[in-house]
Amino acid sequence: MSAFSGRPEPRDVPVGAYPRWDEALAAVNRDLAVSAPEQRPLRLIVYPETGDEYVYVALSNGEAHGSSLTEAETAAETLMAVVEAAQDTVTERLWRAWPLCTVHDLGMHPRDIDGRPSWWCAGGARKGDPAHVRATIGELDTVDRARPVTRKRPKARRLR
User: Fold this and answer.
1) R_g of the chain, CA atoms, integer Å
2) What is the residue extent of each domain of the chain?
3) 156 in helix, strand or coil?
4) Which helix (H) or strand (E) holds 37?
5) Which residue has the higher pLDDT, 157 or 109?
6) Mean per-residue pLDDT for 35-54?
7) Is the pLDDT of residue 109 over 60?
């Protein structure tokens, strides 16, 4: 029991209890390992409440944020639900955008592109620097990470 609220403490979800969520979380953790290598893998935890159990995506230390997971009809919908929950937890608990586009240094968002859950970047602010799909979720490790983000310094103004 929690010392502060009288509620039961959250606990880990046993591996295999939700195979679709396990598979989706594995894809998300592959992207986390590439884009935030200092972070340990995310995990599924259960918060028991008044006879029901709610599953959340949590940091390795058990901290979670956002909505609980619900069953989805397809594997793609399951992946989208898990990635959105993971992004909520990482963003709110670590106070940082995740994942970042290595081309624009902007936070990316999950989008379903032709039935494939993908990381989408809004693109740069300059004309000709459009929005784009960076990678399919779970495949950030296949993207060329050798291209660094470069920021141009504004030209110095001359004083007359």
Assistant:
1) 19
2) 11-142
3) coil
4) none
5) 109
6) 90
7) yes
